[in-house]
Amino acid sequence: MNAALYDEAIKALARAAHGAGTLALADAVARLDNPYCGDRIDLALRLSAGTISALAHQTKGCLLCRAAASLVGLHAPGMRVTQVELVVAGLEALLAGGNLSPGVWAQLEVFRPVSGYPARHGCVSLPMQALRKAVQIAQAGGSSDEPGVAVVRTQISI
Fold this sequence. Notes:
It contains four helices and four strands. The protein has about 160 residues and is α+β, with helices and mostly antiparallel strands. The protein has one domain: Sufe protein. Chain: A. A hairpin with a 6-residue loop joins β1 and β2.
């Protein structure tokens, strides 16, 4: 593996663990697993007037997954839900070797070296997919035994 996959910026993001923890009174909780490498994220959020007002995640996984979750924890709170798809698409484009679009988190560039390692794309994209899923659940009003909260257990394919 290329040492750039684990450069200091990625290590610092993973160590910072922005947004790590739990969130009381979440509007939605999404759990996503990557069955190929064992990464797992539980991402909880609250929405207010079309904005992510609070977010927390519990992430167990490799350095790349933890760094990506930390980036979500850093930038998603305060973000309009209409921007989520733009950011997800931006990461997908970056991992495919493209450039980030205007309005996409510039700090995603830290994951550019991962574009050359398709087997690692899922590690980076899992937290973004969890963000997307949690927003969808919250906008749908949730659907579980706990009012307003839905836990979705999904496995992603890489």
